[in-house]
Amino acid sequence: MKFASQEWCDAFKKVVNDDKDLTSWFSDGANFNYKFEIFAEGSGKFQLYFQKGTVDYCGAPQGDTDFILGSDVDTWKKIASGSDAASKLFTLGKLKVSKGPLDIIIRNVVALDKICAKVGLIATEW
Q: Using one digit for the tens of pLDDT, what is the confidence trace for 15-32?
């Protein structure tokens, strides 16, 4: 599936929401209500909306978001393969947050790692 296509987004939403531990990954899952735009340079972008710690929407950009998170394709491939955690690449400046309060990302670093790693569960055409 092509990264960020609607088919890919539907699969990503499913693998994230199907994890029974999802809300426990957040510092306050019941109140985690944020909109993210996520991109892979040269490969596409999508938006991911969380409502009470679960994915409410995943698909084509529809408006303004609270966060913009992204990187180059090679970085996403490292995350998807499990060779590097998203938090490590964030710390190294490879995975960038170009919009949004960093304290929320830092408080929810476990969720960042686990959700980004779900990319590896989808056969992705970059």
A: 999 999 999 999 999 999
User: Beta strands of the chain (E only): which ranges?
Assistant: 35-41, 44-51, 54-59, 67-72, 96-99
Tell me: the pLDDT tens digits for 56-65? Answer: 999 999 999 9
Other beta carbons within 10 angstroms of residue 2's beta carbon come to: 12
Q: Which residue has the tokens 């531990």?
A: 21
Is there a contact between 37 and 45 (Cβ–Cβ < 8 Å)? yes
For the range 56-64, what are the long-range contacts, defined as Cβ-Cβ under 8 Å and sequence gap of 24 or more?
57/13, 58/9, 58/10, 58/12, 58/13, 59/6, 59/9, 59/10, 60/6, 60/9, 61/37, 64/35
CATH architecture designation of domain 6-121: 2-Layer Sandwich (3.30)
